[in-house]
Amino acid sequence: MNSKDIISLISKIRESANGFIIKEMEKYGVIGLGTSHGDIIFALLKNEKLTMKELAEKIDKDKSTVTALVDKLIKQGYVEKTRDTEDNRVVFVSLTSVGRELKPMFDLISKDLMTVVYKNISKDEEEDLFKILKKIKNNF
């Protein structure tokens, strides 16, 4: 393998993983959401509410992109925005009850994805891979 192929390979892995996630969500009847929408829901499943800025940092997207993603999730009934009672300029995003109902689906899809990703890979290889990929990310 040519070392220059690493970025192409990472890109193909990401594409395959995203396709897997979308297909699995569709099996559960969640249609029309991309993986970036899933990133937001996943972040909110871990945190009861987040500001738009915190959400942007957690999913590593710019604030304007997050605003567009959140707006779509609001239209689909998964999240809601509320203003901070102490500082009206601060907007929080949180899951609705419909959004919280997605947790079991997200847990299953995450488990299934990890099963596919680490199939035929030892624990040591998994740890080495993570360390190397983290180094590559930090290089940027």
Provide the CATH superfamily.
Winged helix-like DNA-binding domain superfamily/Winged helix DNA-binding domain
CATH fold title: Arc Repressor Mutant, subunit A
Order of helices and strands: HHEHHEEHHH
Give the spatial strand order of the biggest sheet.
1-3-2
Secondary structure: helix percent: 55-70%
Gross morphology is globular
Number of strands: 3
Q: How many angstroms separate the termini?
A: 23 Å
Please name the CATH architecture. Answer: Orthogonal Bundle
> How large is the radius of gyration?
17 Å
Q: Would you identify the regions where 5 or more consecutive residues have pLDDT less than 50?
A: none
The number of helical runs is 7
> What's the structural domain tally?
1
Keywords: DNA-binding, Transcription, Transcription regulation
InterPro entries: ArsR-like_HTH, HTH_MarR-typ, WH-like_DNA-bd_sf, WH_DNA-bd_sf
Domain HTH marR-type: 3-138
Protein name: MarR family transcriptional regulator
Main attributes?
140 residues, mainly alpha, Arc Repressor Mutant, subunit A, three-stranded antiparallel sheet
Overview of the molecule:
This protein has a three-stranded antiparallel sheet. About 15% of the residues are buried. The chain has helices at about 5-25, 35-45, 50-60, 65-75, 95-100, 105-115, 125-140; strands at about 50, 80-85, 90-95. It is built from seven helices and three strands. It has about 140 residues and is mainly α. A hairpin with a 7-residue loop joins strand 2 (about 80-85) and strand 3. It has a single domain (about 5-140), classed as Winged helix-like DNA-binding domain superfamily/Winged helix DNA-binding domain (Arc Repressor Mutant, subunit A, Orthogonal Bundle). It holds the Pfam family MarR_2. InterPro entries: ArsR-like_HTH, HTH_MarR-typ, WH-like_DNA-bd_sf, WH_DNA-bd_sf. It comes from Clostridium zeae. This is MarR family transcriptional regulator.
